[in-house]
Amino acid sequence: MMKRYLVLWTAGLLGLALGAADLRIEAVSGDVQARGAVGGFAPAQVGAGLGLGAALRTGNDGRATVGAGSGNQVVVQPESALRVEAPEGAQGPVGVRLVLETGRVESALTHWPAGMRYEVASAAGTFVAHGTTFAVGYRLGPAGEFIGGTEVGAGEVEYIAPECSVPSLTAGGGMSVLRTLGLESVMLEITANGNGLTVVIAEKHRISVAAGTTVRIGMALRYLQRFAAIWVQQGVVTVGDQAVTPADRGVFIASNEVLPNEGGIAFLEAVRTESGAHAQAQLPGLTDEQLAALHATQQSGARAVIDSAVGAGVLPMYQPPFVPERPLSAPLSPSGTP
Questions:
Q1: Which pick of 59, 63, 138, 316 has the fewest CB atoms within 10 Å?
Q2: How many CB atoms lie within 10 A of CB 303?
Q3: Rounded to whole angstroms, what are the CA distances from 283 to 84, 144, 180, 278?
Q4: Separation CA 269–CA 184 (nearest Å)
């Protein structure tokens, strides 16, 4: 089986001037490789700093402990890697951003300075914390889906994805997320672990997810502000004052209401088809025939996303011209990954 590596991109080591986010290798075991802003990888040295643009990766027997200022540590688990970037939109010494390509990183920020941003990002979404103990994992699934999650040991963590957010993940809880990204739609599967959580879609539609609940959320990217669809796989979700269970199957939601429109299952299936075909098409090693088949599936799925929403009555019959035939090499829809 191919040897996997976790790439942990540690961003935003901009606090060197303030002495607040000085990332420095404190301990290594097994296969640990480091790279500066330029040059190639070489065996990591204890005491070496990790400045802006630096990278760190571990093999299947490697582990690295990185100090993040006084009293704070980041442990990069086996099959891991790390690169330093600035938090998105940052201008100046404002924090640290870690972008995982695959694997797991554990952060203990018991003395993290107030006002300094700390985030762990991946294609599954970004987890933001201050003064927190938490772990984040991420991997690319076999069908091109982005699989991630967090466990919060202390403090509070926020989850942010282009389509939605979870404002508060509290100690003793966490979440698992599976994000399948298409050109025209996104499918999310979120599980609330330990504690309940609230998902806010497009900063508008809110669902409360009870602890132990798994919910699928289907979204048409160009109509995110209008509606979404959910299907509770297990447990219970609350939208406004209405409880939604697996018996309700697929339902449409808008703001804090469950819409009376039927046809949510057809819409969710169309989202699954469109997003899944595009996600698979991004995997390496596909033949021209496989890419052509996935492209055709993505096109038909994109049409079905709109047709199913129109058929359910959540979109009017006449829409602006819709062209799902964009080439797979075209830039992603507004959901682009971190």
A1: 316
A2: 16
A3: 26, 6, 13, 9
A4: 14
Backbone dihedral region for residue 192 (phi beyond 0: left; psi -120 to 50: alpha; all else: beta): beta
Q: How far apart are CA 120 and CA 100, in angstroms?
A: 7
With b meaning 16 or more CB within 10 Å and e meaning fewer, what string describes 15-40?
Answer: beeeebbbbbbeebeebbbbbbeeee
Between the CA of residue 240 and those of 175, 237, 256, 261, 265, what are the distances in Å?
Answer: 21, 10, 5, 17, 21
| Residue owning tokens 């600035």 | 86
Burial of residue 164, with CB atoms counted within 10 A of its CB: 0-12 exposed, 13-18 middle, 19 or more buried: buried
Q: How many CA atoms lie within 13 A of 154 on its CB side?
A: 11
Q: What pLDDT, in 10s, does the model give residues 76-132?
A: 999 988 787 877 665 555 788 888 888 899 999 988 887 788 888 899 999 998 778
Cβ distance 106 to 129 under 8 Å?
A: no
Of 126, 159, 162, which is closest to residue 334 (Cα–Cα)? Answer: 162
Contacts of 287 (CB under 8 A, 6+ apart): none
Do residues 188 and 167 make contact, with C-beta atoms less than 8 angstroms apart? no
Residues 6+ apart with CB under 8 A from 329: none
CA distances from 159 to 151, 169, 289 (A): 12, 8, 38
Can you say how many angstroms the Cα of residue 325 is from the centroid of all Cα atoms in its chain? 26
Contact 276, 187 (CB under 8 A): yes
Q: What pLDDT score was predicted for residue 70? A: 82
The angle formed by the CA atoms of residues 19, 25 and 31, to the nearest 5 degrees, is 160
For residue 293, give the 3-state DSSP assignment.
helix
